[in-house]
Amino acid sequence: MESPTTANPPAVLTFAGFKRPPQLPERYQAATLHRLMAAVRSIQKRLPLDDSLEELYRACENLCLHDYAEPLYTNLREELAAHIAFCFIELDRAPPADGDLLTAVEELWAEYNRQVRLLSSIFLYLDRTYVHQTPQLPSLRDLALELFRAQWLQHDALRNRTLAQLMAAFTTYRRGDGEVNRARLRALVGMYIDLLVYPTGFEYTFLERTQAFYQEESTAQLADLGATEGETRANRVAAYLAHAERRLDGEKELAAEFLHLDTKAPLLAAVSQCLLTDHVDTLVNLGLDALLVRGAIHHGDLARLYRLLGRVDRLDTLRAAYGRYVATTGRFIVLDTAHDDSMVERLITLKRAQDQILAYCFDGNEHFAETLRASFEQAINARPTRPAQLIARFLDATLRSGNLERTDVQLEDTLNQALALFRYLHGKDVFEAFYKRDLARRLLLKKSASTDAEKSMLVKLKAECGAEFTHKLEGMFRDIGVSEELEREFETAQEARLSSKARGKRPATRVGPGMAGGGDAAAPGLHFRASVLTQAFWPTYAPVSGVILPAEITAYQDRFRAFYLDAHKQRLLMWQDPLATVVLRAQFDAGRKELELSCYQALVLLLFNDVTPDTALSYADIQRRTGVADDDELIRTLQSLACGKYRVLTKTPLGREVIPATDAFTVNREFSAPLFRLRISTIQQGVKESDKETAATTEKVFQDRLHQVDAAIVRLMKAQQTLPHTQLLNLIFQTLKFPITAAELKKRIDAMIDRDYMERDPEDPTLYRYLA
C-alpha cells in the first residue's frame, strides 16, 4: 500500500530572476541629486523643504543602491564647504562688536550643528554604507567638523578676537563683577573640543591667563604682610587662606562645568602654584607663628593651612616651621629664670595646646607628632637639671595635701600632663632624686593628698621607665606600711606594761607657763610614733648630733629601740631627730591652740616651759639649751616662730631678720588665730627649697652618674677585652640613660686607666685593653 506522501508529493514554487536588472528612469540620478542638493541648501538657508525627510532619505538610498554614492558624497562635501566658507566670509565682512562676537560665533556653531544633525539623518544610508566601506573617507559628522575647523584656522583675526573675548568672559566670571552667559561659555568651549583644537587653541591660553590672574591677585593680597604683626597679621593670613581655599574650590567647579576633563588637573596645579606654592615661605614664616599665638584652632585657620599645603606637597616646610616655633617657645619658657616658679605650668599649657593642634589641625599626622616630640625634647633640655627639679616640685605640690579643690579626675589629669613633660627629660636621674626627696617628706609628714594618687604616679613611672627606676620609691611605701604595723605592736607592748588605771587616763597635762604635749597612756602628756626606714630606699640624711631632746622623748626612744632590736637583733637604728614632727598644745590668753611643728621648733618652744612668762631668751641661750649647732637651721626656725604668719614668739628688737648677736625672744601671750590647730611651717618645709639642699641633691646625682659611667666602662671592657676609642664611646652612649659629653667620658676613661682597670695599646694609643 502506498503512503500518501509518496502518492502526492508536495508542490514546489520557484521564481525566475529578472532577465535584465531593473533600470531607473532616464535622468533619475541627476534629478535626484539635484533634489537632494536643493534640500541641503534649503536647510543651510533655513528655508522650508519641498520634500519630506522620508522622501529625501529614500532618494539617498536609491542613489547609493545604484552606485551613485561617490558623486553624492562629493557634491555634499562641496555644498558644506561652500556654505561654511560663506558664513566665515560674512563674519569677516561685518564683524560684530566685541560684546556680540561670542554671541555670533556661538550662534553660528549652534546653527551649523543643527544643520549637520539634520543632514546626517537624511544621508544616514550614505554614511552607513559607502562611507563606512571606504576607510579613507570621514563620516558626515567628521567631515562637517573638518570643514568648519579648516575655516576656523584660516581666519586668524576672528579666532584671536574670539579667544580674547572668551578669556575676558572667564575673568569676569572669576571676579564676579558682571553677568556671564554660562551656557554660551559651555557651548564655545565645547566647540574647541569638537573641532580638536582645544589643547593649543584654548587650553594653553586659558591656563596661561589663569596663572597670570592668580599671580597678580595673590601678590596684591600678600603685599606688605611682613610690615604687620600680631592679630593684624594673623587676620590677614587667615583671610588669604580662606580666599585661596574658595578659589581652589571655585576652579574645581569651573573645570567640572566648562572644561574638558583633562584640564582639571593642570588648572588646579596652576592655581595652587600661584596661590600657595609661590607663597609657601611667606605664609609659613610670617603667618604660622601669628596663627599659633592667637590660638587659631578655634577658627580652623591652622587646619586650612595644613590642608592647603598638603595639596601642594609642602607639609615638610610647615612641619619644620612648626617644630621651630615649639622649640623656640619652649626654650623661652625654660630659659626664663625669672619665672621658674611657673615654668612647669607654662610648659603644660604649651604642650596641651600643641596636642590639640596636632589632633584637630594636623589630623594627628605622625610626622608632625614626631616633630612635636623632638621640639619639646630640645626645649625642655635647654637647661640640664632645672626642669627635672621643677617637674618634681610641681608633682610634690600636686600630691601634697591641701589641694582639696581638685577632684580625682582633675588630679589624675594633672599627673598625666606632668608625666608627659617627664618623658622628654634627658636627666631622669635628677628627677628621681628630687622626687624621692619630696616623696619622703610627704610620707613622713603624712602630707599626701591621696595615697591612691601617690601609687598611681608610681605605676605611671614604672610603666615609663621600668621597675628599676621605681624600686626605691616602692620600698619607701613598704617601709611606711611596716612602720604603721610596728607602731601598733609597740603601743600594744607598752600598754601591757601599765596598770589598767593608767591605761584609762589620757590627760592633757599643762607643763610650765604655756606649752604642753598631747596626752598618752604610756606617759602623761606624750604620744610617741616612730617610722623605721630602710636606709637604701630613702634619701641620704646627714647625721645630726648634740641636739638636746626632752627626757620623755629620749626615754621613749630607748624603749622603742629595745622593742625593735628584740625582734631584729642584727640591725642598727640611727635616729634622725631633724625629720621629726611634733604637735604641742599651747595655752595663750586668747585660748588653747594645737601647734604642728618641726622638731627644732618644738625644742625652742619647750624652753619657755622652764622660765617665767616674761623671761626673754637670747639666741645664744636658745642654741645652748637646744643643742642646735647649725646657725642657718636655728635662724630659719626662729624666723618661722617670731616673724612668720603665726607669731607665737615675740622678737626684740622687731624685724623680719633674726640677728644672733642682738635678738631675744619671749612668748607672745596675746597670740590669737581663728583656727584651733595651726601648722607653723619652716622655710625648709615650704615650697622654696634652700639652695644648699638643692645643690646637695644635685651633687649627689652627679656623683652617682660618675659611678655609673665607671661601671659601664669596666663592664664593656671586660666583655670585649679590647676596644677602639670611638667604639667604646658609642657603646657607652648607648648604655647610659643620662646625657654626658665626650669630653667627660674621656676624663672617666683616663681615671679608669690611672686605677689600672684598663690600658692603652703600646702601638696604637686609640686602642684600649682590659686589665684583669
Automatic annotation (TrEMBL):
SMART domains assigned to the protein according to its UniProt record, in alphabetical order: CULLIN, Cullin_Nedd8
GO biological process: ubiquitin-dependent protein catabolic process
One Pfam family, short name: Cullin
Listed GO MF terms: ubiquitin protein ligase binding
Entry keywords, A to Z: Isopeptide bond, Ubl conjugation
Residue stretches making up the Cullin family profile domain: 386-642
Listed Gene3D superfamilies: Cullin Repeats (1.20.1310.10), Cullin, Chain C, Domain 2 (3.30.230.130), Winged helix-like DNA-binding domain superfamily/Winged helix DNA-binding domain (1.10.10.10)
Disordered, as annotated region: 496-516
Record family assignment: Belongs to the cullin family.
Protein name as it appears in the record: Cullin family profile domain-containing protein
Organism: Tieghemiomyces parasiticus
